[in-house]
């Protein structure tokens, strides 16, 4: 039987950057994503599936938001199809790839995205192309539902756009001479520990420091402590480099291929005493009772803050305040577990 590699639309964005990219094992984020997709499919009417991952309240709210958006925007002209298999066949009717559309409503494709707002064009183009071929549409409307951000991104993909882009990715990744091309997705790639292209780039830095490693595979490094020492130096150097790059990017407004997004700041409370009075008034005005101990249980105190408070209240030294706090609150002082830190010997 002729061997033919099956492709997966979810790896197309990565394969568009490196033809030999290979997806690594699913992490927690992926398991959470799968469970959320299952929950959405069930809300939309699919059969329940067994999923051992428990969704928390926030995840459930995200799924409910996506469900509501789909319900509010679909048209009755077409049926709503859930988790429908979409396949793309070549001229010899071989199935080249397949995936499952989260929700399909005529030429509209809805896809739940539970993580960051990455670029998904190639993945969606693959689904859209399969849908266009199966149903003879000329174009498909894609709706990405970024549930964490409660944001919908919609765009049209035509057959003229999708076909050459997807066929090119497939052709390049099936080329036996395809070369690895390091890119921003290397961290997700299964081949990273043994990838010659990544190794070459790391070597360029390490060669100046005599930190060149015999192997970049963590399992090999672990076998020899001398290699491990070099690897630690190298990884720390690279971390410094990564941090330095993050730092300098802050000075650049326009960076090709990137855009700045405003992330709204976290809210916090600034005065416990004023809040106690204000919230106490709000509760009693509504006929409730303000319980001081219950209120205090919601407040967090630091040991340092408490010591400062005692020092100021009694006008004593910091040392005395420390002793008072330690002796009077002994049973309520909790110490987190100690851990080991690897520090460099000079
Ligand atoms: S680790 Fe290597 S094979 Fe994987 S994406 Fe990066 S360059 Fe390509």
List the helices and strands and how they pair.
Elements: H1 12-15, H2 28-43, H3 57-73, E1 80-89, E2 95-105, E3 108-113, H4 121-135, E4 139-146, E5 151-158, H5 159-174, H6 196-206, H7 218-221, H8 225-249, H9 272-285, H10 292-297, H11 303-314, H12 318-328
Parallel strand pairs: 3-4
Antiparallel strand pairs: 1-2, 2-3, 4-5
The protein binds iron/sulfur cluster.
The site of iron/sulfur cluster has 14 residues, from α6.
Verbal overview:
The protein is an alpha+beta fold. It folds into three domains: 165 residues, no CATH class; 64 residues, no CATH class; 61 residues, no CATH class. The protein contains twelve helices and five strands. α2 crosses α3. The site of iron/sulfur cluster (SF4) has 14 residues, from α6.
**Mean of residue pLDDT values:** 87
The number of helices is 12
Low-confidence stretches: none
What proportion of the residues form beta strands (DSSP E)?
A: 5-15%
List the domain count as a whole number.
3
Radius of gyration: 28 Å
Distance linking N and C termini:
62 Å
Comma- or semicolon-separated keywords:
flat, 12 helices, 346 residues, 5 strands
Give a nutshell description of this structure:
It is built from 12 helices and 5 strands. It is an alpha+beta fold and 346 residues long. Bound molecules: iron/sulfur cluster (SF4).
């Amino acid at each position: 039987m002729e061997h033919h590699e099956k492709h997966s639309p979810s790896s197309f964005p990565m394969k568009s950057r490196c033809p030999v990219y290979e997806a690594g094992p699913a992490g927690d984020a992926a398991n959470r994503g799968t469970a959320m997709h299952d929950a959405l499919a069930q809300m939309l009417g699919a059969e329940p599936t067994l999923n051992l991952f428990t969704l928390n309240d926030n995840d459930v709210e995200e799924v409910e938001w996506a469900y509501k958006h789909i319900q509010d925007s679909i048209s009755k002209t077409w049926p709503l199809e859930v988790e429908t298999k979409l396949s793309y066949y070549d001229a010899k009717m071989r199935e080249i790839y397949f995936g499952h559309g989260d929700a399909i409503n005529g030429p509209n494709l809805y896809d739940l995205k539970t993580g960051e707002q990455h670029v998904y064009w190639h993945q969606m183009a693959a689904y859209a192309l399969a849908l266009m071929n199966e149903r003879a549409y000329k174009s498909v409307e894609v709706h990405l539902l970024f549930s964490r951000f409660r944001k919908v991104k919609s765009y049209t993909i035509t057959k003229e756009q999708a076909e050459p882009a997807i066929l090119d990715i497939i052709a390049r990744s099936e080329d036996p001479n395809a070369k690895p091309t390091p890119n921003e997705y290397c961290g997700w790639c299964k081949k990273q520990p043994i990838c010659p292209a990544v190794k070459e780039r790391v070597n360029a830095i390490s060669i100046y420091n005599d930190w060149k490693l015999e192997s970049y595979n963590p399992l090999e490094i672990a076998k020899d402590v001398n290699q491990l020492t070099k690897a630690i130096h190298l990884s720390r150097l690279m971390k410094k480099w990564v941090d330095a790059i993050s730092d300098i990017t802050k000075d650049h407004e326009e960076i090709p291929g990137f855009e700045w997004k405003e992330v709204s700041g976290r809210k916090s409370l600034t005065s416990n005493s004023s809040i106690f009075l204000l919230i106490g008034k709000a509760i009693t005005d509504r006929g409730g009772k303000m319980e001081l101990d219950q209120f205090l249980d919601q407040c967090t105190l630091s040991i340092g803050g408490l010591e400062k408070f005692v020092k100021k209240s009694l006008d004593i030294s910091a040392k005395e305040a420390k002793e008072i706090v330690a002796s009077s609150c002994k049973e309520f002082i909790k110490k987190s577990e100690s851990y080991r830190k690897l520090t460099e010997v000079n």
